[in-house]
Structure formats: structure tokens, C-alpha cells
Amino acid sequence: MSNMVKENKYLENHFKQKPIKELTGYSFIVEDYQRGYKWDFNQVLDLLKDINDFNSNGNLDSYCLQPVAVKAMDNSEKCSTYELVDGQQRLTTIYIILKICGVKDLFEISYKTRPESEKFLENINPFSNYEFDLWKGLSEKDIETSLNKRWSDYINDVRADTKIEENYDNVDNYHFFQAALVVRSYFENPKNDRVEFLRKLKDKVKVIWYQDPTEQTANKLFKNLNSGKIRLSASDLIKALFILNLEKENQLPAQIEFEQNKLASEWDDIEQQLHEPKFWSFIIGNTTRNYEDSRIGYLFEVLTGSIEHKNVYECYRSYSNGQTELSWDEITDLFFTLKEWYEDVSIYHRIGFLMRQNIKGWNNLKLIYDIYNNAENKDRFVILVEESLKQSFEKPIKKIEPENYLYDLDTISYHNLVEVRNLLVFVNILTYERIMPDYRLDFDQFYSGKWSVEHIQPQNPKDLSFDNVEVYLKELKTLLENVEINTENQLSEIQELTTAKLLAITEKDKKAYLIKFNNFVTENITNQFNLHGIGNLALLQSKDNSSIGNNSFNSKREQILNIFNSKVAKGSFIPISTVQVFTKFHSKGQVQLDFWSYQDAIDYKNSIAEIMINYLPKNQ
Questions:
Q1: Pairing between strand 81-86 and 15-19?
Q2: Could you report the per-residue pLDDT of 321-371, keeping only the tens digit for each?
Q3: Tell me, what's the pLDDT at 375?
Q4: Taken in order 295, 296, 299, 304, is the CA torsion positive or negative?
Q5: What are the CB-based long-range contacts (under 8 Å, 24+) for 463-469?
Q6: How far is it, in rounded angstroms, from Cα 279 to Cα 269?
Q7: H or E segment to which residue 398 belongs
Q8: d(CA 445, CA 441)
Q9: Do strands 15-19 and 396-398 pair parallel, antiparallel, or not at all (unpaired)?
Q10: How far apart are CA 243 and CA 260, in angstroms?
């Protein structure tokens, strides 16, 4: 067990909920080693709205804020003065709300960052002389401009007042002042009942209270909390909600302990299984957030619809304010559903593909889980998955040309890179299912690098060295000799190029020769043999493609097979269908391994059509 996990388990055992009204008589001190008050008007407004909207349907018991970490200033049981180590932004905002609403006897909070900040906060008021209106339909930029103008007016007035000795112009007071104006304006709207709001705030709003019982200094605790040595993730906070909820639901200490141990055991089991690499890479899709500290947090984000939300604590916020029901059964239901999908190789591959390819409506786990829950049964869900795949491969090029499809194998080309990548990825998935029915593709391995589309027969061998030209000319000559169309002129030019190569001796001659050679390939080979078509395209990871370059088919084949068979090709991954291409698996008749022929390309394209028969447009 990591030190961070041990620390977090220790913290969990010292959490408890405190209603705001239980902070009556407390004094909180924010020392000068901490950052000042930084909340902007949006954050203040969000808190006001959350509290005001809470329990609008009357069935929620409390609204839980994020933790407040404190250190008692003395060791007495009746200590009422605490150093506020974490949570000062939210608690300060609540203090300002209470002061602006006329509540003066609840708790006190003082900032030691600057003497002027301490005095300003102590005497904070609605600043009624400074006009500000949230309800004019202003843009965020206009609201910010208005608040800045009011602050400038206030500072100018203070400087002009000879009775005021303090210099209040600092960043703490700037944010205190703005928060006060926002709170005042919020309650100037008759729709916002101040009395009812204060009732909710005092009785229903609770903080997760953590009073550090150790002998470490408050400064040390602050550094640990903010350096990541003790870092509470959203899932840690949600776990605290579950534990505190169990204490409310059970009366007997033995029953509470049993239920808490049961929760902890199931939690750890799920967390452990989420660290299984293939399972995790399957469910995570293209999500970029780091969940290494607590992967179960991803499941909470799925259920609360907060995947990739800019606020990493949004899922906690959703549970704490009652927007999402705090139900452990929902977590276990989701987890076991994911395990069921994982065990079914076909569903595993299709859902993994849909998510990784960003197929609309299926591009994150929340959307897919909703589709699953709304389906009549598992069979209907499987049908919906298949239908979505078919629809993604049956897209018309344009709505006005419904008969022309993006995935028409006769027209799709290197110029449709996104579609080609999608097609070849799914061809690989279906190929694995055919030859290794029980094999699960490792989506992390398959997507650990960016995909690149490789020309099997090089379409423009810019990087071909002078020494390798001769081999490539032989391949082209054989290619031209094995097609039915008239290639007499091209064969004649190849003979001339072969002779010219012998005459190129100096470096200048070689450079001029390569220019002439590349022009010949571009003008006579690329279009005539559809080298941009699907029959000449395969999938490689970008780093492997760049190392292989525009070499001849035979050279590429040798390099690809070396990577595929090598145990030391760290981080490289050659898809099975690409291996089949370069071993001529799809080619009919007499097979030669020296070059990629026109007939090889046709056979390969026909194999793709056969593999994809259930998904491509019906005219394929």
C-alpha cells in the first residue's frame, strides 16, 4: 500500500460532517504562508446558486461542501480557535455571505497575510453606494469590467477620505469587495429569498470537517496537503460521504463498523481490478485525465456525467449537493456491467472501437452506459451497437449525394486519412476475431502511438537512396509486365533510367538523376496503378512508419517483419492485418514476395470487402 493511500485512509477515519451553524463561536485564522483570497465572481455566484437550488424538491437531507482542514490552536477540549489550513476560499465566501446578509454572530475569520486585509474583512459590508447589477443580462466580460470599475471607484474614495489611514488597495481586498457586491446583487433579485437561503445555509449546508490530531505543525500539514503528499481526490471525498452516510443509517457501533469494512473491501476490490491494464484501456477510451491515484473516480464521473469536466471535483460536487443520489449499488452495477462487456470479446472490441474512434453518440462511457440502461435487454443493446457501427461506415459523402459513400472501397483513398484509419483499425479487429476468437485486443497497445497510413508500394519514394533505385526499378518493371494494360512506354523509360543510373557518377549527377526518377514515378505509376487507393494502404504507428520511410516493398517487408518478430522492438506494434499484407496473405494465384503487384492490391481490396461485408454500404 502506498504512503499516499495510507495517509488518505488515515484522513478518512478523522472526517466528520459539521453543519455551518455548529461553527458558531469559532474563530478561524489564515496565516501568512498561505495564498490570499482568490475567488472570482463566477465561483461566488456558483456557490450561491448551489445553496439556493439545493433541496428544491424537498427530499435531500444536507448539502456537503469540500473539506475544511484545521489545526486547533490549543489542546483543550473546548478549543474554539483554529488555524484554517485548507478550505479557506469556500469558508471565507460563506463568511462574506453571512456578513452581507446581516448575520454577525456565527463565526469569525481573519487573514494574517496583510493587516489591511484582516481589517477590511472584519468590516466588510454590502457597499450599497457602489452600483452593481448581476441581472442586466451582461456578458461575463461586462460583469468583470463593471466590478473592476466599482473597485476603482471605491479605492479612489478611500484615498480621498482623510479619516481612513489604511491602504486597502491589495489583491485580497479586491476579491473580498467583488464577492460582497455579487452577494448583495444576488439577493436584490426578489426571486432569491434571503431568509430561506440563510435557513438552508445554517441548517442544511455542512462541511467535511478534518481536525488534524497529529503533532505536526499547521505549516507542515498545509505543505503536505498542497504538495500531493496528502492529496484528497474527488473519490476520497465521495468515500467520506459514504462513510458518514453509513454512520447516519446505522445505530449500533458494531453495525457501523461492519458496513464500513464491507464498503472498504468492495471499494478496494474494484480499485484493484480497474488497474488490470486491458480492462482499464478498454473503459477509459480517449479520456485524458490522470486517474492513477484513484481509478474508481472515473466511475463516479461516468455516473455523474462529469467526464473531463474542467473541475476535477465536479463528481463530488454532484453527490454532495444531492444532484446525483449517493448509491453504492449504482457503482457496483456499473462496474459489473463493464466486466460483463469485457468478458464478451465481440462487445469488448466494438465498444472499445466506438469510443476510441470518437463515433458520435458512443464516444464516452457515460453515453454508452445510458444506451445500455435504456435498451430492453442485452440482445437489443448488441443490436444497437452493430447498427451504430454500420451507420458509421455507411455515411454518404454529402447529404445531396446519398448514393456516394465515404467508405466506398473503389473511391476511398489516402486523401481520406481519417476514414482510411477508421476502416483499417476495424479490419484489424475483425481479423483478430477470425484467427484468434478468444483474443482481446489491447487498446492501450493498439492506441499508444498515433496511427499513420502507409503506402505498401511507395507512391513517391523521395527518401529512396541512389543505391536502392536499382531494386525499385526492377520491382516497377515486374509490376508493369504483370498487368494487362499497355505499358510499353513506361517500360522503355525504365530501361532508360536503368542505363542513366550507370552514367551518374558525381554527387551532382546522382541528385539530378533522383529528381528525374521521382518525376517518372509520380507521373506514370502513382495514378495509373491507384497507389493512393485502399489496395495499397496499410496501418502502422507513426514512429514505425517514419523509420520505414518510402523504401521499396521488399525493404519495407523485411523491416516490418523484423519489428513484428523482434522481442527488443520496445514500444512498437505491428497490426495483424499489416503483417498479412506484407506476407501476401490475401494474394491469390502464384505468390512472389519481391514486390506489391497490381493484382496483389486488387486481392487485398477484395479481402477487405469480404471482411467488412456486414458493415460497408451494400454496393460494395
A1: unpaired
A2: 788 999 999 999 999 999 999 999 999 999 999 988 877 788 789 899 999
A3: 94
A4: negative
A5: 463/549, 463/550, 463/551, 464/514, 464/517, 464/550, 464/551, 464/552, 466/501, 466/504, 466/510, 466/513, 466/514, 468/551, 468/552, 468/555, 469/497, 469/501, 469/513, 469/514, 469/517
A6: 14
A7: strand 396-398
A8: 8
A9: unpaired
A10: 6
Q: Nearest-CA neighbor of 531 among 580, 600, 610, 466?
A: 600
- Which three cell numbers mark 258? 461492519
Q: What is the largest CA-CA distance in the chain?
A: 102
Start-to-end Cα distance in the chain: 56
From the list 7, 205, 15, the residue with the least C-alpha distance to 97 is 205
Question: How far apart are alpha carbons 549 and 534 in whole angstroms?
Answer: 19
Closest by alpha carbon to 185, among 324, 293, 45?
45
C-alpha 609/C-alpha 620 separation (Å) is 7
Of 59-63, 345-349, 487-491, 525-529, which gets the smallest average pLDDT? 525-529
List beta partners, residue 452: 540
135-157 confidence digits (pLDDT tens): 888 899 999 999 999 999 999 99
Which 3 state secondary structure label does DSSP give 396?
strand
Distance, CA of 617 to CA of 620 (rounded, Å): 6
pLDDT at 67: 79
Give alpha helix (H) positions in 252-327.
253-274, 277-284, 296-304, 314-320
3-state DSSP call for residue 17?
strand
CB 82 within 8 A of CB 71: yes
Q: Which residues on adjacent β-strands are paired with residue 522?
A: none
29 has pLDDT over 70: yes
Q: What's the one-letter identity of residue 93?
A: T
Q: Which of 418, 446, 437, 411 is nearest to 605 (CA)?
A: 411
Write the CA distances from 274 to 171, 277, 306, integer angstroms.
44, 8, 19
Supply the Cα-derived Rg of the chain in whole angstroms: 34
Q: Which DSSP letter does residue 103 get? A: -
- Dump strand ranges (E) for 144-242: 205-211
Per the CB < 8 A criterion, the answer to whether 603 and 573 are in contact is no
Q: Answer whether 348's CB lies under 8 Å from 342's CB.
A: yes
Is there a contact between 68 and 84 (Cβ–Cβ < 8 Å)? yes
* Cα distance between residue 326 and residue 300, in whole Å: 10
What angle is formed at CA 463 by the lines to CA 567 and CA 514, rounded to 5 degrees?
A: 150
Nearest CA-CA partner of 130 in 185, 209, 203, 76: 185
Cell numbers placing 198: 440563510
- Summary count for the chain: helices (H), strands (E): 26, 10
